[in-house]
Amino acid sequence: MKALVIGGTGPTGPYMVAGLLARGYEVSILHRGNHEIPEIPPEVEHIHTDPHFSETLLPALKGRRFDLVIATYGRLKLIAEALVGKTDQLLSIGGVFAYRGASSPGDCFPPGMPVPASEKDPLVGVGKAYGFDGLIRAAEQAVFEQDRLGHYRATHFRYPYVYGPRQLVPKEWSLIRRIMDGRKTIALPDGGLSLCSHGYAENLAHAVLLAVDNPERAAGRVFNAADDQVFTLRQWAEAIARHMGVEVDYVSLPTEIAPTAFPLLQFTTSHHRVVSTELIRSELGYRDLVPVVTAIGQTVDWLLANPPEKGGKIEQQSLRDQFDYEREDRLFERLSRFNRDLAGVGLAPEAAAESRIHPYPHPKQAGELQDHRGR
Fold it and tell me: In angstroms, what CA-CA distances link 267 with 98, 105, 198, 233?
């Protein structure tokens, strides 16, 4: 049996390759050759070409046929068309931004995508008006058009943010570097209360490989793939700090001005982005291979051993994090003054205490119509 992984050198690729080899497949990976990694075994063939263009992809696939293709990278719409007559099964990877409201909360009412979003929830439209999200949807449609025409059996996975080794834009670095730099106070947008689904690379690879093991149940289906447990951003920060053996104070700042808002949320909104994994759990038997806290620790260890260049492209362009601690300290000082000013006009201590009293009556003796508080 022959399998092709388009991509293969990113976060999930080595786990997929290892899983296919363990299942007896002869494995090839197709990628541009920019990121050769030692985790790929020597028996795996490398096909070096760019999967974003028909003029480079088609010649590389000429005369080849595979029992299975997993497409994790490249321009999926072109890949779906290029694989006609070249495979029996296509497992393709997309993103949760196919859901309406995921990147533009105002597209839904009330604002924000459904929580959790299931595979049956509304999707974005297709076309230039919907930007990159519309391209994600167009790619999904292209995959299932070929499935409908009977060219191959297709299964599509919607990924959330992927974390783990080899992530090109590791948002965890915004927290890890601040801790490494000795910052004892870190700003979190809106208190870090945002809930967002994540997927550890090994867990997501396991989810896709379940479709290899259950081709009939997976055929023609779309599955959300994500970790079983969903953490708030604050819980992520707490898990990272504990793994690094430090205690950190967290300051809540409005998302609009929090210096960590874009790198940690990847947007300037703190709306929740949570997907339901009920379908993949019930249909394919998915369960996390690696628990979330363990996965976060492994991610931290990898980034400590493979840190992005300080002030380099990943920090400045991808994460858009300036690590401007002087500015952050000015924000903290102004926030402290603001909180002191507000304390003078807040609830009086006795009113605050009264607000915590249970509203239902609690009689002291049997037969009382009212308790001691007149309730």
Answer: 16, 11, 15, 13
